[in-house]
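Intended use. Records like the one below are meant for learning the mapping from a protein sequence to its folded structure. Do not use them to infer anything beyond what is encoded.
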Amino acid sequence: EPRSPWCCLAWSLVIGTMNSLVFLLNLLLMFVIFTVVLLPTIVVVYFGFQCHSQVLHSSARYCKSILDDNSSSALIILGFVIMSPLLVVAMAIYCSLARRLRLLMCFQPYSLAVYKGGRWCRPGEGAPCCARGCNTQLKAWV
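Structure written out for the chain above:
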């Protein structure tokens, strides 16, 4: 049965807010994982650019005694070379966590705002954010 226009608008705002929060949670999780996994690349490239005479040319002691322009260039190249495999690792970690936590199942369709009596999740999915009121029994066959 369709909802009234004002009720439909209110439910649309609730569902939109909930979907936005789920999106922000996914974005935060992705940011944390990518930052932690790509930290070695960030550090290596940072020190390479910091100590190179054509870029920043820091007056730090380690730049004068340990790193010259050739070694700074090598650090920059090494950082960009190890970035590709670390990006793949970070994406694999994020995808496995999102799948395990079923974060993408928490997005709700806007048809819940239009029609009365809709469920907040589909039966049998049992996502943590919408498991109330749904059948969360696991099947023996999968």
